[in-house]
Design goal:
This protein is of the alpha/beta class. Helices cover about 35% and strands about 15% of the residues. It folds into two domains: about 180 residues, Ribosomal Protein S5, domain 2; about 250 residues, P-loop containing nucleotide triphosphate hydrolases (Rossmann fold). The strands form six sheets. It has a five-stranded parallel sheet with strand order 11-14-17-10-18. A four-stranded mixed sheet has the order 1-2-4-3. The chain has a three-stranded parallel sheet with strand order 5-8-9, sandwiched between helices. The radius of gyration is 28 Å and the shape is elongated.
Length: about 500
């Protein structure tokens, strides 16, 4: 007898359907073929124990299980459930015409209960595209699959629930989640706010520009000046996720196994802050079975690197290509995987090892050349890719003790949203474009034309600051964003002048 069930394999943030074929013949051997990994080969022991503890025993027969396509490597424990159901049906425990209409995924415990798995959302999306009627998954994962409209999702806790469903004895409760309702629930509620920050109005202004155009930012200043506090509040002024962005972000976190039981759709922009001891692979993704790294988990959100010079040089340099291409390709000998990585980079650092270089009140105790050596830990090519450089100065006692409250994040966010709406209109015919930071050379020429006075101003800045061609592009992008915040169709000299001042680390002899 030949029986087929269907599972799915996740590659990157996409899925591919796997057909599980079971053939039963005379003999006493069980073989799993089709490039299974060790976890799948061990599944037969888990399956036998789970079925035995659930009231079923597999007969001693010659059983061949093929996982097709056979040239695609299958990995992980999520195939336990479809393998078990196929084995039961092939050995005569039940017959059902429903098997061909459902994707089945789940890891089995020895008592027959189901454990959560990764990547359920991309599996559900692909299954619907291929015409499957529905999907059966562990109850823990049901809500993330339930947001796929017009697709039956059943969350189950035990293998007996699945067997009873295919026998026609009972039907689990269908999980239905309205994506639009889940999307509208939150996303704009934050525990921190810009009103928490005393003073630093110039830094808040720079963050408003960065949020409006999706620009990368680096903060440089002494310890205790508020760099980390400000960075953690940047996400509060970013515009809310669109439905497309929310789905894409949720897919990445689903593949990484970061979604909780009650999560269905990520509504707030991610904020990731890895420690400086992070490895290259953990930052950009990879491993023997590639998983998304921190730059992909920060997709459509913020990646905050505190104490930037303390990160290993190799870790920082691997970010160069993702910062430009907004994606990361992880290549192996037999396949390659693309993960999206469109994030805002926010970095902070001290100006020197002691932290007090250029401090208005405290003296720097670092020796000659030490400051420059410390700054050189961050390469010029990486700094070139950061649009806005900001010097953070300490807040005075009067500002700290004063009762004056600054603008709230919600007020700033409204201006940011207005600027983003102008950009969406501007780039409505350009695929994959959502903000000024993503402009290429052609769009720069089209949308960042300068007046004669503006051209002279930028020419002087390029000569005096010895700016690179990439820094030239960054200045134009920031100036375009400043003009959008001002509601101007054209880049004025005042917009360009403000953009130029945000290249402080490009100044010759900045560190003496």
């Amino acid at each position: 007898m030949l029986i087929k069930t269907f599972g799915s394999a996740v590659f990157g943030v996409n899925a591919a359907t796997i057909t599980i074929e079971v053939h039963v013949d005379r003999g006493a051997h069980l073989a799993i073929v089709g490039l299974p990994d060790s976890a799948i080969k061990e599944a037969q022991q888990r399956i036998r124990a789970a079925l035995s503890n659930s009231g079923y025993d597999l007969p001693i027969r010659n059983i061949t299980i093929n996982m097709a396509p056979a040239d695609l490597r299958k990995e992980g424990t999520a195939y336990d459930l479809p393998l078990a159901i196929a084995l039961l049906s092939a050995t005569g425990a039940f017959e059902s015409d429903l098997l061909e209409h459902y994707i089945i995924m789940g890891e089995l415990s020895l008592d027959g209960s189901l454990r959560p798995i990764r990547g359920v959302l991309p599996i559900a999306i692909q299954a619907q595209k291929e015409g499957f009627k529905g999907m059966i998954v562990p109850k823990h994962n049901a809500r993330e699959a339930g947001i796929v409209e017009g697709f039956e999702v059943y969350g189950v806790e035990h293998i007996n629930d699945v067997i009873d469903f295919f026998k026609g004895l009972s039907t689990p409760e269908r999980v239905v989640v309205s994506a639009h309702e889940a999307f509208a629930l939150s996303g704009l509620h934050h525990t921190v706010d810009f009103t928490d920050v005393k003073g630093q109005e110039n830094i808040k202004r720079a963050f408003e520009i960065a949020a409006a155009g999706g620009h990368n930012v680096i903060l440089i200043g002494p310890p205790g000046a508020g760099k980390t506090m400000l960075a953690k509040r940047l996400s509060t002024v970013l515009p809310p996720l669109t439905m497309e962005e929310a789905l894409e972000t949720t897919k990445i976190h689903s593949v990484a196994g970061r979604l909780r039981k009650d999560d269905s759709l990520i509504q707030a922009r991610p904020f990731r802050a890895p420690h400086h001891t992070i490895s290259d692979v953990a930052l950009v993704g990879g491993g023997s079975f590639p998983q998304p790294g921190e730059i992909s988990l920060a997709h459509n959100g913020v990646l905050f690197l505190d104490e930037l010079p303390e990160f290993k040089r190799t870790v920082l340099e691997v970010m160069r290509q993702p910062l430009e291409d907004r994606s990361i390709t992880i290549s192996r000998s037999k396949f390659s995987i693309d993960y999206p990585a469109s994030f805002m980079l926010v970095a902070s650092m001290n100006p020197c090892p002691c932290g007090f270089y250029n401090h208005p009140e405290k003296d720097c105790v670092c020796g000659t050349g030490v400051v420059q050596k410390y700054l050189n830990k961050v390469s010029g090519p990486l700094l070139d890719r950061i649009d806005i450089h900001i010097e953070v100065t300490p807040v005075s006692f009067n500002e700290l003790s004063g009762h004056r409250m600054g603008e709230s994040s919600s007020v700033v966010r409204e201006r940011v949203i207005s600027a983003r709406e102008r950009q969406q209109v501007r780039y409505r015919n350009v695929s994959g474009m959502s903000c000024n930071a993503q402009m290429d050379s052609r769009l720069l020429r089209e949308h960042c034309a300068l007046s004669e006075s503006g051209t002279r101003m930028l020419s002087t800045a390029m000569e005096k600051l010895k700016l690179s061609a990439r820094a030239y592009d960054r200045i134009l992008k920031v100036a375009r964003t400043i003009a959008d915040l001002a509601g101007s169709e054209h880049i004025g000299s005042e917009h360009l002048a403000e953009a130029i001042q945000y290249r402080s680390l490009d100044r010759e002899n900045w560190a003496g």
